[in-house]
Amino acid sequence: MNTISLCMIVKNEEEVLKQCLESVNDICDEIIIVDTGSNDLTKTIAKEFTDKVIDFKWIDDFSAARNFAFSHATMDYILWLDADDVLLKEDQLKFKALKDVLHEGIDGVSMLYHIAFDEYGKPTFSYRRNRLVKRSKQFHWIGAVHEYLEVSGNIISADIAVTHKKSEKTRGTQSNRNLTIYENRLKKGEKFTPRDLFYYANELKDHGKFQKATIYYREFLATRKGWVEDEIRACINMAACYKKIGSEEKELESLVSSIQYDVPRPEVSCQIGDIYKGRKQFKKAIIWYLLAIEIEIDNDYGFTQISYATWYPHLQLCVCYWQIGEIEKSIKHNNKAKEYRPNDSQVKHNENFFKEYLANKAKLE
């Protein structure tokens, strides 16, 4: 059986580190924790699971820290996680099964990453990341911020999910760390790669600097050298910025521009539908909501917000069809939304409304 090294970089993660390590302790044959300057109980907690807790002087470079951690691995494969990631029980079992079938011909394994959830705990925002890689291939991390692991060869896609679980302390907060790193790099006169431009724009957006963010999204798109999923996401994020600024025409223009990179993503279709619905152009809105349901995306490496391909367009179609007098279709789409969210308050409200409407209609007939 192949062996696995877990490599992590941490700083002040006392609230979440234990749950992370407990979830993978039975899977990994070696745990390496690289600490970049904790002043809480992070290192003490780490030492409960491993004697390989190593200090690394922080130099504003995430790739440097991750590559340092990887350099200490000694097992066949390397798994990487962040401190606020966990493997749920079902995914632990799947990982153990994967470990049994790992073989020399596999260079890496991608896994799902669930980062947002609805009130029922179901994932609403997911994408894939290369999580497990063969140590002998010496794959390296690239990028000071929003780093990525450059992987090649035979990469298999597993149905294992890593679940992102933020601590209560950091939930809803926005750190200035990444933005500061980017802005310090700009002050030094560093030339940004297309990836840097994209992620710097994201940081600006997340910090409410919407107008400036749109400038960098456009600069990123102008390079025409980005990953297609990042190009689509840049258009969606740029639209969100224009929405915040109050420029609906530019919001719509940004959403439509995403279509030049691939078929319309359900998220794009629904947001265009929302604009037309808000304008009371219900027939136009219906076209876009139906598109969100009908188009199949043959790529699970991109960002996926499942609601835009399931219950959300059906709920909006319920409203739109009602507005144009197509009652049966309105009821049908509310029922479809109910299949995905049986306890949704709006779905229940609509259901009660239709019951009353049909009962009153029957009395009049």
From TrEMBL:
Answer yes or no on keyword Transferase.
yes
* Protein name, as recorded: Glycosyl transferase
Indicate the segments forming the Glycosyltransferase 2-like domain, all copies. 5-128
Do you know which SUPFAM superfamilies this protein is assigned to?
A: Nucleotide-diphospho-sugar transferases, TPR-like
Keywords from UniProt, A to Z, are: Transferase
- Give a yes or no for keyword Transport in this entry: no
**Molecular function as annotated in GO:** transferase activity
**InterPro entries, sorted:** Glyco_trans_2-like, Nucleotide-diphossugar_trans, TPR-like_helical_dom_sf, TPR_rpt
User: Taxonomic classification, please?
Assistant: Bacteria, Bacillati, Bacillota, Bacilli, Bacillales
